[in-house]
Design a protein that fits this description.
8-stranded parallel β-barrel; 12 helices; globular; binds 1,3-dihydroxyacetonephosphate; Aldolase_TIM
């Protein structure tokens, strides 16, 4: 049976921050501070840094690299886009898909995100699928309805074999970049709900093997408590992943 430690992932989402020079210093700083992380550590870096950070992490056990987006089509006249095959050829391990900032600023919906997830899996890239509700939905206590629908639209058409590879990140929009964190209990409730949904459709073995990460104002001070919850397998960290010491402390939280 898969244990919580097997599912452990701490991923940084640098978003549109760091120049290539700064990014290399940041990634190396983290690697130097945490030589053998428990579980996996992922750097989600700007496209221009993917190859360089992959080279830098190649010799560092436990470290992986994620793209922050990807196009759903195999190739063609899509100026400015990047395909799954390009990521696979560069040996990029993961791709963050469906982040709320892409939903908000680039109009991505779960039908499109599903197509991207399938394209990533076909190329051997692991999707980190982001879901999460906005503040008004949380205030009206409809978070399970909204997140349930996101999960269903983005993931329910996958085969069990495909689903077993997906990483899910629950990122309540009201907690992203706001300094407001979901309480450990709120995170646990939603993560348990997501795992139950996956179990209902794909079976308990697949559901128990999947990593479900929490994202939204994770920092060293709250990581241990959040990651200590039964269904919180780690984090997708924005702002705090831009500081080597802060991110290193989060990687080590609760270990
Ligand atoms: O969006 C996030 C990670 O993808 C979370 O960002 P913050 O950690 O800055 O709130």
């Amino acid at each position: 049976m898969t244990s919580k430690t097997d599912r452990r992932i701490v991923a940084g989402n640098w978003k549109m921050n760091t120049t290539p020079s700064e990014g290399s210093v940041l990634a190396q700083g983290v690697i130097d501070k945490v030589a053998a992380p428990v579980g996996k550590v992922i750097f989600g870096v700007p496209a221009i840094q993917l190859v360089k950070i992959k080279q830098l992490t190649a010799a560092a056990e436990g470290y992986y690299v994620a793209a922050q987006n990807m196009h759903q089509k195999a190739d063609g006249a899509f100026t400015g886009e990047m395909s799954a095959a390009m990521l696979a050829d560069a040996r990029i391990d993961y791709v963050i898909l469906g982040h709320s900032e892409r939903r908000q600023y680039s109009g991505e919906d779960d039908t499109l995100i599903n197509a991207k997830i399938v394209a990533a899996l076909d190329a051997g890239i692991i999707p980190i699928y982001c879901c999460g509700e906005k503040l008004d939905i949380r205030e009206s206590n409809n978070q399970n309805v909204v997140v349930g629908k996101q999960i269903e639209q983005a993931l329910s058409a996958l085969s069990p074999k495909q689903m077993a590879k997906v990483v899910v990140a629950y990122e309540p929009v009201w907690a992203i970049g706001t300094g407001k964190t979901a309480s450990p209990q709120q995170a646990q409730e939603m993560h348990a709900f997501i795992r139950q949904m996956i179990s209902d459709q794909f079976g308990s073995e697949i559901a128990n093997g999947i990593s479900i990460l929490y994202g939204g104002s994770v920092k060293a001070a709250n990581a241990e408590e959040l990651f200590g919850m039964a269904d919180v397998d780690g984090g997708l960290v924005g702002g705090a992943s831009l500081d080597a010491q802060a991110f290193a402390d989060i990687i080590k939280a609760g270990q």
